[in-house]
Structure formats: C-alpha cells, structure tokens
Amino acid sequence: MIRFREIKNALLHLLFPHICAGCTNDILDSDSSLCMRCIASLPETGFALHEDNPVANKFTGRLQLQSATAQYYFTKSSLIQQLIHQLKYKGHEELGLQLGQMMGRQLVQSGRFQSIDILVPLPLFAARQKKRGYNQAAVLCRGMAKAMNIPVYEKSVERITATESQTKKGRIDRWLNTEGKFRVKDEAALTGKHLLLVDDVITTGATLEACGAELVKIKGTRVSIAALCYATR
Ligand SMILES: [Zn+2]
User: Fold this and answer.
1) 77 alpha carbon – ligand 1 mean position (Å)
2) 222 vs 212: CA distance, rounded Å
3) Using 50, 70 and 90 to split pLDDT, how confident is the model at 61?
4) What does the pLDDT average to over 122-138?
5) What residues does 225 pair with on adjacent strands?
6) Residue 183's pLDDT is what?
7) In sequence order, what are the residues at sequence separation of 6 or more whose Cβ sits closer than 8 angstroms to the Cβ of residue 230?
8) Model's pTM, two decimal places?
9) H or E element: which one contains 58?
10) Ligand 1: distance of its center to the CA of 111 in Å?
C-alpha cells in the first residue's frame, strides 16, 4: 500500500526538485538537505565521548571549560568544507539546521553534555551579520536546540570592534584586534548557568577563547564549547 506521505513527497519532488547539498544527487526525503551516503561519509571525530580530546586540550591553560568537542574533522577540498561554504556564503540555512540537529543528537547520546542550560552562538560583527542575513553559529544552535531540548540565547553576547583604542595602536596590535572583542549584554540571563558556546569551525581557538573569557567572568557561570568542525593545522 502506498502511503499518503510517499505520494506527497513524490509530488513535491516533481514540483520542486530536491538535491543533496553534498553530491547534488536527487534525493526523495524532503526533510533532509543531505543524502544518506553523504551523511555516512562525514568524518566524525568521536570527541564528544571523551573528556580528554584535542579540542579540550587546545584550551587547557587558556580557558576554564567543563567540556569541549567538535563533531567532524575539517580538511581542505572536502565534503564538510563544501557544506560549510554553503552554510556561510550561499544562504543554505536548512543545511545548517540539519547539521546542528546531528550535532545535538550526538551530544545527547554522549551523556557528557547533560548539564548544559543554554546554547550561546559565537556572535558575528553586527555589520557582517547584516550582510549575510544570519549568523551561521546561531543556525547550528537552533538545530541543536531541537535535539537537546534547551533554549538558544542569540543576543546575550555581542562582538564589537575596538576601533577607538586601535587608532592609537601600532599595526601589529591592530592585526591582533581584527577578531574584535566580546561584550556580555544580558548578564542576568546567563548568571549561574552552564553555557554551551557554539561555532562552526575551531582552528586556533582564539576567537572562542576571547568570547569564553567574557562568559566565565559571570558569577557562577560554567562554560563548555562545541564546534561543528575541528581543523588540524
Ligand atoms: Zn549526497
């Protein structure tokens, strides 16, 4: 017996061809941006299962964290790089929601992120967010929130340029300041909570460290970090 859902999906597919964001094969599941083969080929790190992992170690001595993880290895010219490009520059928010949901499910399964109260996306500079239309880390958080059943606070922290102090500083200082500074806007909402700070890619960890350093200053607040990808270099 053909189910109604299958007929509906087949009709939708005829009207709106739906292709995999990874390999462009056409897929029938209208709820997914990726085919099963692409999902299976993503290089999982398994870091969420282990307290002692390369992302956690990266922050040792730099930032006091409860837990830290990244879901996939990031390599150049790979499927995951292509997906992040689509999320950041091609407006593919649906893909970000799905990747976030996949991340969230793995964090729930790991059992190491049960005490998280709030998801906090690493903020973009206001001008960049306006240009892009959204913050890709916030899109990931919205997908994670679905899987983890916890709220996202998108406007609790902001990223600001240090323009005034920069004009008086030298070239190297200006270069060091290009990632900007972070300011907590809603301290009351974050006080005493366990926050999960989320970004798309961890490379040096400097930006997450700068943001996390502001969050751990809040009284009784604990911070963990999760990224979609970990770039080794
Ligand atoms: Zn595919």
Assistant:
1) 15
2) 10
3) very high
4) 93
5) 68, 197
6) 94
7) 45, 47, 54, 55, 70, 72, 73, 74, 201, 202
8) 0.87
9) helix 54-59
10) 29
